Amino acid sequence: MTPITRHVGIYFALLQLFFTLAWTVYVIFLPRLAAEAGIPKSWILWILIADQLVFMIADWLMGAKADRMSRIVGTLGPRLALITLLSAFAFLLLPFAAPLASPLLFLGLTFLWTVTSSALRAPPLMLISKYAGAGAQPAIAGLWLFGFGIAGAIAPYLTGVLRDTDARLPFALASIAVAVAAWALAWAERHLATAAAPLPETPERKPLPIAAFLAIVALTALGFQVHFSLSSAPQYLRFVPAAELGQLMPVFWVGFNLAMLPLTYLIRRHGDFKVLAAGAAVGALAVAYATQAGSLGLLIAAQLAAGAAWAAVMFGAFGAAILLGRSGREGYATGGMFSMFAFAAMLRILMIATQLNQDTGLQQALMYLPAACWGAAALLLVMLLSRSRPAAA
After folding, report:
1. CATH topology of domain 210-384
2. CA dihedral 117, 57, 214, 126 (to 10 degrees)
3. What is the pTM (predicted TM-score) of this model?
4. Which CATH code fits 3-195?
5. Which tens digits make up the pLDDT trace of 77-96?
6. pLDDT 10s digits, 51-77
7. Where are the domains of the chain?
8. Quick one: how many helices (H) and strands (E) in the chain?
9. HSE-up of 114 (CA within 13 Å, CB side)?
């Protein structure tokens, strides 16, 4: 990994960290800001569902658009930066618009922020896939994911610290951080293009269709959403009071971040698809064991393993999307992947909005749904990879 790609990787880690923390700030303050804007409390979950629906559509469209914009080196980064500056400005205005008690203005700004923030999801990963050499891609993607994992670990603490503060300051800080980071996208594109190795004339063999890959991503993402957001807290509450949840929920992300360095090596040695399949299989075992853990220590161990497995799934999925999109459809493939992440998040929030997670008849099924999703994804991927192998002579 050259100094240039290392610096770009650190930049992408910071970009992802700031973007994810901005989303965390939004979720923390949305109920209060919506109330100030005159929006009923019953709308909150439906606003979050609409946000994920917009992400699901915009991420894929933005990824496909990025493929076209990137055909001329140096054009994608500046355009993404301008879109993101608009996104940061809309985000900044949210706590100032809420006291005006105009639901349409508040919802309009929310929609504008959600649509334009898609510029920071698939396109940066597409830049990595387009310009970074095969040897550098795992390291840069690992740093990108590390920023995501750090944000996930910090989120529970932010929820406790920011809940009663003035929303304008955290929104302003998050907007400025995202805007400053986004302004460097042109720099990242230029430096990656400068250091890029020539692309192979013959594309690598693609072991499965993009549609099948996206189905696998959707399964793993749904497993993650249900496990972390719906199942983890009740599992911990079997052993600790609710006041200690803020200290234990980041355990999953500790496992996620600790796995980054070894996964960089494993990706290079075994390939993205094998790491993705192994991560889904290990994750299925870990989350299944978490439901039956007999002590807090064993539950923490299971959560660490589940976090590491989710890191393997995301790491492998990113590399798999890059391979399946090469050459010329990197944005389409990575955008589709992020759309599946949004789709899974939308389903999870929909369960809460419709109170399916409170249904006594479904609670037992939801307990084992993460293991079933991850296990099915691993099995499906192994089957598809086996079928794609060339027949022995």
Report:
1. Growth Hormone; Chain: A; (1.20.1250)
2. -40
3. 0.89
4. 1.20.1250.20
5. 777 778 888 888 999 999 99
6. 999 999 988 888 887 777 665 555 667
7. 3-195, 210-384
8. 17, 0
9. 21
